[in-house]
Design a protein that fits this description.
Strand content: 15-25%
Helix content: 25-40%
Order of helices and strands: HHEHEHEEHEHHEHEE
Strand order of the largest sheet: 3-2-1-4-5-8-6-7
CATH topology: Rossmann fold
Shape: globular
Distance between the termini: 47 Å
Amino acid sequence: MTGERARPGDPALFERLAHRWWEPRGEFAMLHWLAVARAELIPEASHPGAVLVDLGCGAGLLAPHIADRGYTHIGVDRSPSALRQAADHGVHSVLADVTAVPLPDACADVVVAGEILEHVTDPPGAVAEACRLLKPGGLLVIDTLAATALCRVLAIHVAERIPKWATRGVHDPELLVDRKTLVETAAQHGVPLQLKGIRPSMGDFAAWAFKKRNYVRMVPVRSTAVLFQAWGRKRE
């Protein structure tokens, strides 16, 4: 269904593509690569019973990469079909909006929000909710797209026109994330963030495009103007 037109940011698009979540060369391929990069920021659990809350978990693509790290993995998403697939990969599924998660305060040792903030109409609300769920000393991990002209060109106008790269209409340019607001919001809720830009390895991507490789590494870049990671620990 690559090239399918949809209202920008339409959540129903993910339901229509639900059967493609776990295809390494499907429309969600880059989300697999990002899940690996996200997992690299998550340490092993520091105690038995540690909880990781995965906001916008989709079909649970993070699960295989943290399965041996000792967490109870709780996934939150609005897509029933994605949550069913996540459950098949050991994720405890919660059907909810990421701005109103039915879990108690300070319940999580780690909260991740991977490629979700650019799909919600209230990113500060989602960040505030993520911080609410964190225990003091808990780790927040985010990756998302920046609200810049360069990002709009590369992530929407270019990427969504490359076959098997991204589905047309998956991103709404109005929902891209303002980095300053993100940092300020997290700080207001007790989580100072560090930011780092990332991008796919061009060599890996070329090999992937010619079907020589199924996985593309994400590598660091100086600029956070397109795709970036953010992470920080909640103040004690």
